[in-house]
From TrEMBL:
Residues 1-18 have a biased composition (Basic and acidic residues). It comes from Erythranthe guttata (Yellow monkey flower). Residues 1-39 are annotated as: Disordered. This is F-box domain-containing protein. Residues 19-31 have a biased composition (Basic residues). Residues 38-85 form the F-box domain. SUPFAM superfamilies: F-box domain.
Length: 396
């Protein structure tokens, strides 16, 4: 029977009546027995391997991937790869637990599906005072107000900055680290006042990492007296700028351009039917959230680095209709509403908590899908946005 079917098939092939699809397939053997028909990662070009490695976290690359082989090491050690990985990564929220012995955690939102993930940071105990980061570089002031350090906790690189000699009676108002994208430089900013005798006089010192051997001063003489108190507020760092404002008490904004090192003074929008709840930075812009009574709805205004001083209303968030559901999930009443913590994924997710109830869960509200995830982060304090990265300020 089998021979008859084979003869009929061969006859059809001879007559041209058999289509290519119905012809039997006989795999050809390679003349070179050393060649394999299967494709493995070693046969992929460097560009494709690089795209695959970009999906890994910085810690996974540094501790595992670059140790696999010399080829992967050479790909991940280039400046271009480090920059691409930095731009490909989304910033997360650094949280410090109430317990000093517990390591800090990085809370992130996946680019697909919006799933909240929590990962312990590689963060030595001696560096727990780190409060400001720029592209994975941490600014530390561990021992005294005059000694500053910059570190990358992923790659274990750490360097001491030139000592800043402050006047004996001066008050240290804050310090931060920022990134100037045009010049690709990282800069540290210190803010101080000389003392009680001159409370309105402010000192703003700046240092370019890897270039300066001493601190330089930024001119603050043109800043109005009404705005000088803003230097004592917590700096808000976005790409290319350091901003100072206290929206509940002032309608002014001070912005330090990290490229030009010039401070400008502008006005912030006036609230309509509510109050300015808070100001939240993203990786590349500054936002104002103007709350309606009850703190369950906000008008969102944004100022980008491309148009400093120009504010645009970009949307509205209203959670009033979901108050009962949120109260049930949190296990507490929202008599005072919610306070906004930060943005994640460039204004895709707004992180919120209940006022004065710090041991309750945290809400992650997706602005696009309007979904709310409830995550128990425990009793913690929030520090800043942070990216795990491989960068270092010497561009290597």
């Amino acid at each position: 029977m089998a021979n008859t079917e084979k003869e009929n098939l061969e006859k059809k092939l001879d007559d041209g009546k058999c289509s290519r699809r119905s012809r039997p397939y006989y795999p050809r053997r390679s003349k070179d027995k050393g060649l394999s028909s299967k494709t493995n990662i070693e046969s992929l070009p460097d560009e494709m391997v690089s795209r695959i490695l970009l999906e890994l976290d910085a810690e996974d690359i540094y501790e595992s991937a670059m140790l696999v082989c010399r080829r992967w090491y050479n790909i991940t050690c280039t400046h271009n790869f480090k920059q691409e990985h930095l731009e490909h990564s989304s910033p997360g929220l650094v949280i410090l637990s109430k317990s000093v012995s517990q390591a800090p955690s990085l809370v992130t939102i996946s680019r697909r599906g919006g799933i909240v993930t929590i990962r312990n940071l590689k963060h030595p105990k001696r560096n727990l005072c780190s409060k400001y980061w720029a592209n994975g570089l941490a600014l530390e002031n561990c021992y005294s107000r005059d000694n500053y350090f910059v570190a990358n906790h992923v790659t274990n690189k750490r360097i001491a900055l030139p000592r800043y000699s402050a006047p004996e009676d001066s008050n240290n108002h804050g310090s931060c680290i920022g990134y100037a994208p045009a010049s690709k430089e990282y800069k540290v900013v210190l803010l101080q006042s000389p003392g009680l005798e001159n409370p309105k006089v402010q000192i703003c010192a700046i240092l370019t990492l890897g270039a300066d051997e001493s601190w330089r001063y930024v001119d603050t003489r043109h800043v109005s007296l009404a705005a000088r108190d803003l230097f004592t507020t917590t700096p808000l760092v976005v790409e290319g700028f350091v901003h100072f404002l206290f929206p509940s008490e002032s309608n002014r904004l001070l912005s330090l351009n990290l490229e030009s090192e010039i401070i400008t003074e502008t006005l912030i929008p006036s609230p309509e039917g509510g109050c300015v709840s808070c100001c939240l930075p993203t990786s590349k812009s500054l936002t104002l959230l103007m709350a309606s009574p009850g703190n369950l709805s906000w008008d969102v205004w944004e100022m980008t680095a491309k148009k400093p001083g120009e504010w645009n209303k970009v949307g509205k968030i209203d959670l009033k209709a979901r108050k009962s559901w949120m109260q049930k999930q949190l296990g507490c009443t929202l008599r005072d509403g919610l306070f906004t913590v930060c943005w994640l994924n460039d204004m895709e997710v707004l992180v919120l908590r209940a006022w004065m109830v710090f041991d309750k869960a945290t809400l992650f509200y997706n602005v696009r899908t309007q979904e709310i995830q409830v995550v128990d982060l425990g009793y913690c304090s929030y520090v800043n946005l942070h990216k795990n990265s491989l960068v270092w300020f010497d561009h290597t």
